[in-house]
Amino acid sequence: MRPCLSSWGVTVSNLGRLVVVGAGGHAKVVIATARAAGWDVCAVLDDAPQTHGSEILGARVVGGTEDIGSVEADKAVIAIGDNKSRKRVADRLEASWVSIVHPASVIHESVVIGDGTVVFAGVVIQPDTVIGVHGIVNTGASIDHDCRIGSFAHLAPGTNLAGNVTVGEGALLGIGSRAIPGTSIGSWATVGAGGVVIDRVPGNVVAVGLPARPSMDD
Ligand SMILES: CC(C)(COP(=O)(O)OP(=O)(O)OC[C@H]1O[C@@H](n2cnc3c(N)ncnc32)[C@H](O)[C@@H]1OP(=O)(O)O)[C@@H](O)C(=O)NCCC(=O)NCCS
C-alpha cells in the first residue's frame, strides 16, 4: 500500500476507491473521515434527484443507489444517519461494505468492528468491545471494555459507555448520553440527549433524563 498524508497530517496507507451512499449532512463527516483514513472518495450516490450533480467536500453525487454496481470502486459505505434508513439501504444493496476508522481515534487491538461501521475522530474504544455492522460511533464517543454494540446502532457525539454495556441493534444513544457499567439498551430504543442509563432500557422506547426512563407515551 502507498503511504499518503491525510487532511489531518497523519501518514496513512492509500486504501483505494470508496463509494459513499447518502448525500446529507452525515455524509460530509463520513467523507472527511474516509479521506483522513486514506480512502479516495470517488463517488457519492443518493436517491434524491435534486442532489445529483452536486458536490460534498468536492466529491460528486453521480446518481442514485441503484447505480452502485456501475461505479468503479473497491469498497462502499453507507453515510445515512437514521438507523432504520441505513438498515433498509444495507438490506437492499449488494456491495462490498467496509468499516472506516478515523486515524485520530484510539482503539484497542482486541476490538472487533463490523463492516460498514464508521468510527469518527476523537473516539476511544477499550479492550474486547465488539461492534456490529453499519454502526456509527460518532465524534468523541468513548466505549469502555467488554461492551456489545449491535448492528445499525448510533452512538452520537460525546456518548460515554462504561464497561460491559450492551446496546441493541439499531439503538440511538443521543448526544452526550451515558451508561453505567453492566447496563443494557434494547434494540431500536432511543436514549435522549444527555440521558444517563443506570439500569435496563427496553427495546423500541424513548428514554430521557437522569435516570433515563421511557416517557409515558411508550
Ligand atoms: C429524546 C428525543 C428523541 C425526543 O424527541 P421528540 O420525540 O421530538 O420529543 P419532543 O422534542 O417533542 O419532546 C417531548 C418531551 O420530552 C422532553 N425532552 C426531549 N428531549 C429530551 C432530553 N434529551 N432530555 C430530557 N427531556 C427531553 C421535552 O422537553 C418534552 O417535554 P414536555 O412534554 O414536558 O414538553 C430528542 O429530544 C433527543 O434527545 N434526540 C437525540 C438526538 C441526537 O442526539 N441525535 C444525534 C445526532 S448526531
Structure description:
The chain has helices at residues 25-37, 83-92, and strands spanning 3-5, 11-13, 16-21, 39-45, 55-56, 59-63, 75-78, 100-101, 106-107, 112-113, 118-119, 124-125, 130-131, 136-137, 142-143, 148-149, 154-155, 160-161, 166-167, 172-173, 178-179, 184-185, 190-191, 196-197, 200-201, 206-208, 213-214. The chain is mainly beta. It has 2 domains: 3-92, 3-Layer(aba) Sandwich (Rossmann fold), CATH 3.40.50; 100-208, UDP N-Acetylglucosamine Acyltransferase, domain 1 (3 Solenoid). An 8-stranded mixed β-sheet has the order 8-11-14-17-20-23-26-27, covered by helices on one side. Strands 9-12-15-18-21-24 form a 6-stranded parallel β-sheet, with no helix packed on it. Coenzyme A binds at residues 138, 156-157, 174-175, 190, 192-195, 206, 208-209.
Short description:
The chain has 218 residues and is mostly beta strands.
Quickly count the domains: 2
The CATH topology of the largest domain: UDP N-Acetylglucosamine Acyltransferase, domain 1
CATH C-level class of the largest domain: Mainly Beta
Distance between the termini: 51 Å
What order do the SSEs take from the amino end to the carboxyl end, as H and E?
Answer: EEEHEEEEHEEEEEEEEEEEEEEEEEEEE
Please give the count of helices.
2
Strand neighbour order, sheet with most strands: 8-11-14-17-20-23-26-27
Q: Class by helix and strand content? A: mainly beta
* Rg, alpha carbons: 17 Å
- The quaternary structure here is single chain
